[in-house]
Amino acid sequence: MSSSTFPKGFLWGGAIAANQAEGAYLEGGKGLTTVDLLPTGKKRWEVMLGSVDSFTPINGQMYPSHEAIDFYHRYKEDIALFAEMGYKALRVSISWARIFPNGDDEKPNEAGLQFYDDLFAELLKHEIEPVVTIAHFDVPVHLVETYGSWRNRRLVHFFEMYAKTIFKRYKNKVKYWMTFNEINMLLHLPFVGAGLVFKEGDNQEEIKYQAAHHQLVASALAVKACHEIISDAKIGCMLAAGSTYPYTCNPGDVLSGMEKDRESFFFIDVQSRGEYPGYAKRFFRDNQLTIEMAEGDEALLKNHTVDYIGFSYYASRVTSTDPEVLKNITGGNVFGSVENPFLEKSEWGWTIDPKGFRITANQLYDRYQKPLFVVENGLGAVDELTPDGEVNDDYRINYLKKHLVEMSESIKDGVEILGYTSWGPIDIVSASTGEMKKRYGYIYVDKDNEGNGTLKRYKKKSFHWYKKVIETNGENL
Predict the structure, then answer these.
(1) Is 376 a residue of the active site?
(2) How many whole angstroms separate alpha carbon 83 and alpha carbon 425?
(3) How many domains does the chain fold into?
(4) Which tens digit of pLDDT belongs to each residue from 166-197?
(5) Structure confidence by residue, pLDDT tens digits, 279-299
(6) Which of 22, 122, 376, 409 is catalytic?
(7) For residue 24, what are the domain limits?
């Protein structure tokens, strides 16, 4: 399988998040962030959904973000490995609480600012373009405890202050930005996506959409500030994508699939088209949801839309209106889905659907007519390190190869794609489960689920495969 369709200057690389890689969770003046309260084990899911018992870590509980893979201290070593693979781009996130430890501080934390200065300088030294997410499942805990996080309009101001600070600081180093990682995740994991904590009697649906409005306004303000401060920058939004197939050609199933997709498209419709779509307004009316908007919000959303659409793609989904069929709902990648009998699954039950990648890319481009950026795609699997220090991950190569072929096909279809940063180029903590054994990387990190290990890095077989992919600009898959 080969392709010569990838454009010159295509941004090949990988993607990580601060909270899953950096560790050093209170070092350099950093404050607590929401992910620092996500434990391992069964309780993790309850917290991600908004049931939070404590705003400080509990003694005796393991929190994988606290050390992660120690990228904070080892980034030069890791970036050298990425450079060896030939990366053109690395997607990272900035930890909000490293810059403003409490979120509402009057002045930023210089040690945090300097860390990212050094990180971006190291990337540029290796001719790797930083692609920076401003908020990747990351809210300073103080903002959650004091203001109720994104349910409170005050967060818009704090986020704008944070965004302007980093734009001014890194305007000569970073030209690609994204506002909120997988912004639609707010509806599915509200504490992860927006730092929302619920109490008995809360109208959770209304609170989630109110928080969403605040994030959408904050995103527009960030776009405005980015364009004003960095004239040659591109700033995008980011969607947890994946088309929803109807289980049958029953029109009810088809309509249900459309409605499921619109739950996610809503966020990008606003960020890309600049206004609330009619179907969202109807949803609010039908469900008696009151979303408070300030004067000027609509104009702000309309006048400051994103330059490109970033998206993650791991799996497609299936929906049905048949109660018997709905008994077969599974939980791949947070989004519930009816089992698809035509697709294989990963070890974690996520459907493997390369052709769905092409379908999703075409769907997004047809809808928005803006450049796309594939900023996450990969396979979480259990890898075995041999006594010789090798990992023979042919299953990962096979997964990625099939997805790259379909991405190539989507480019032939006329879809404009800026780049591909696979998730994650080095083993990091799993966002959903908190595990280390759920590995995505081309580089193995010696650490297990209990936190044991040397953190030594080893190149997997896929490391050498991806290097050839980049060398040939996707011609040799």
Answers:
(1) yes
(2) 12
(3) 1
(4) 999 999 999 999 999 999 999 999 999 999 99
(5) 999 999 999 999 999 999 999
(6) 376
(7) 11-241+302-310+352-471
